[in-house]
Amino acid sequence: MRPDPLSYLTSDLDSLKQQGLYRRLRILEDEQKPTTRFDRRQVVNLSSNNYLGLTTHPKLREAALDATRRLGVGSGSVRTIAGTMDIHMELERRLAAFKNTEAVVVFQSGFAANAGTVAAVLTKDDVVVSDELNHASIIDGCRLSRATIKVFPHKNVDVARQVLAGLPASQRKLLITDGVFSMDGDVGALPGLCALAEEFGCIMMVDDAHASGVFGKNGRGTIDHFGMHGRVDIQVGTLSKAIGVLGGYVAGSRTLIEFLYHRARPFLFSTSHPPAVAAACIAAVDVLEQEPQIIDRLWENTRFFKSGLAALGFDTGLSQSPITPVIVGEGALAMKLSDRLFEEGVFAQGIAFPTVARDKARVRTIVTATHTRDELQFALDVFGKVGRQLGILQ
Ligand SMILES: Cc1ncc(COP(=O)(O)O)c(C=O)c1O
What we know:
By secondary structure, this protein is of the alpha/beta class. It is 42% helix and 16% strand. The protein is built from 14 helices and 13 strands. It has helices spanning 7-18, 58-71, 86-99, 110-121, 136-145, 157-165, 190-200, 222-225, 254-263, 265-269, 275-290, 293-312, 331-343, 373-389, and strands at residues 35-38, 41-45, 103-107, 127-131, 148-152, 173-178, 203-207, 234-238, 248-252, 323-329, 346-347, 349-351, 361-366. The strands form 3 sheets. It has a 7-stranded mixed sheet with strand order 3-9-8-7-6-4-5, sandwiched between helices. Strands 1-2-11 form a 3-stranded mixed sheet. Helix 4 runs parallel beside helix 5 and helix 12 (293-312) packs parallel to helix 14 (373-389). The protein binds pyridoxal-5'-phosphate. Pyridoxal-5'-phosphate binds at residues 109-111, 114, 135, 137, 178, 182, 207, 209-210, 238, 240, 248.
């Protein structure tokens, strides 16, 4: 028998196990809801990005079923050949009107939207100036573009300015930040960065994956929250988190969108969404427009849970959103905390290096609009009990 050429992967996995960082996938055996069943255990679920509870909203469910009955289960092709259906175009029109931009292109995921767009708009002669905590899909897009990558410390507008000041005026520059940072829950330095983009003639891009449906009027995102309409050239949103379905999109000028229709590789070379996905996303935009009280409930729950964790004495970092990290330091301790919480009926995922810095491992919590106060209070009580048992709390 020939030696296994992939045997080195086993040693990598063994090393993760030794460090206590090996992760088994938790299996969801019910719907994605605030209390649900993972791995045969009923738990309060603080690990989904289902901010508004739309994964199970009756209007989205009905829209998906109706589209499946009328249009089938698949689109059968990439968008540029035979896979652009009426319903894809309708979703793009609805999102453009919602985001107050000329046009929108929908991608198969937020990851594809970020990576495909950055790689399409930049060349090896250009520079990208990027916040150090930007999402992996932005980092991959930057690498694929072969542009020079300059990273500035998290939200540090002064250092970003120094970087820009040191670059030739004639060089094309993309300044890029997350709207909400996915592991810390803090909000990007949009006002300062937009001013820099204007001063230095940069393309300004914001990834609003975790802000879509959460920040701004009816969930229009951080650009709306900061009143920066017209000052961000490329806005990315996701349809996979608060919108409750799947996908990502880019909102911007008609020219940008036409360009991406021709040059963004995930758009050109990967099959478009099934009709059910597009229909459910359209229904989600209806919900955002017609039921904004869901977003108010999300923020009421967020305030309640955050203040509860802080009162217990946990380090919750600098979060300004429904993403609240409970930072414990060592990766192995974060995994232990997550496991013990789970045994007690609370699911909050442990996150360690390389997703976050080695000494900033955490469990990450996200409340949703559909959690009840009883569920959140139960979770706080469990956090208190387990935090004391593990010596994280006094
Ligand atoms: C900041 C950020 N951008 C983009 C994405 C990718 O979105 P999607 O899950 O739709 O691919 C994520 C999801 O993990 C994210 O956290």
